[in-house]
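in:
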């Protein structure tokens, strides 16, 4: 990013403030195939990423690229429909820029969702996994480089990347509504290749339950900014040394759609209770 990052954040936030009357305290990043949540929102304002100063433009199929302001589960929220992935060629500062802008707008709680491959042998395709922790296997940390003390600490703790409070509420919702909710550790990698059988196995052995190509950079920046985070993965394919099915982008999208009723119930209820 050429401009000073602080100036860019303020400039983008100032633009967004001209577009909406009210600023949300909750932000949601909708991952692959999970855009359907928007259909349950009472939409107040949509802003195309193209119109937003300093925003990169999303390029991947299935990511439409809009900021959506509106109500869901009785809460006023902002949702990112489409995110920026490292594998698209964006730098880490670009991938995480929208989270910085959310914070500048007053967002205190961030929900993140993604599609992920499952390595945990208990998982099935279409399962929803509450992310309890992550392992950053991206070759770069989004906080590398100059630290802006205004944004957060030089060496932020990552002891509780995913809020225990929110996980507990999610589990209560799961129990009440008989939702099959798994728990697990998300491994973040660059992609765009899916994993080899040995790589899925390796990620399982180091403590991972699911692997995907997003989320970790955004969560690191959200924690740096002092936000409370809740993350969910939809298990769209399974990997490991005994598994021969070949994952594809189409399969991932299809499986994500299967999980939508559980995702929608969970997120709406969680919003209603926080
Ligand atoms: N690996 C990495 N990213 C993914 C996968 C996977 O198996 N499935 C969905 N996103």
């Amino acid at each position: 990013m050429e401009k000073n990052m602080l100036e860019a954040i303020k400039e983008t936030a100032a633009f967004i403030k001209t577009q909406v009357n009210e600023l949300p305290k909750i932000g949601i990043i909708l991952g692959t195939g999970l855009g359907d949540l928007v259909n349950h929102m009472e939409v107040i304002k949509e802003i195309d990423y193209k119109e937003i100063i300093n925003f990169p433009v999303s390029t991947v199929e299935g990511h439409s690229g809009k900021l959506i302001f509106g109500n869901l589960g009785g809460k006023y929220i902002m949702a990112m429909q489409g995110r920026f992935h490292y594998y698209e060629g964006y730098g880490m500062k670009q991938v995480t820029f929208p989270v910085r802008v959310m914070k500048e707008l007053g967002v205190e709680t961030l929900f993140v969702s993604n599609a992920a491959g499952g390595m945990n042998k208990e998982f099935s395709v279409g399962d929803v996994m509450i992310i309890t922790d992550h392992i950053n296997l991206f070759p770069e940390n989004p906080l590398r480089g100059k630290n802006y003390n205004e944004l957060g600490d030089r060496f932020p703790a990552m002891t509780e990347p995913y809020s225990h409070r929110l996980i507990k509420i999610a589990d209560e919702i799961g129990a009440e509504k008989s939702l099959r909710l798994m728990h697990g550790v998300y491994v973040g990698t660059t992609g765009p290749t899916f994993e080899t059988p040995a790589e899925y196995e390796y990620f399982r052995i180091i403590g991972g339950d699911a692997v995907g190509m997003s989320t970790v950079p955004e969560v690191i920046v959200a924690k740096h900014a002092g936000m409370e985070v809740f993350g969910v993965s939809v298990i769209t394919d399974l990997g490991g040394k005994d598994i021969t099915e070949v994952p594809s982008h189409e399969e991932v999208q299809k499986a994500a759609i299967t999980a939508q009723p559980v995702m929608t119930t969970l997120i709406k209820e969680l919003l209603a209770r926080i």
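note: The beta strands are 26-30, 42-48, 66-72, 75-81, 109-118, 128-136, 181-188, 210-212, 228-238.
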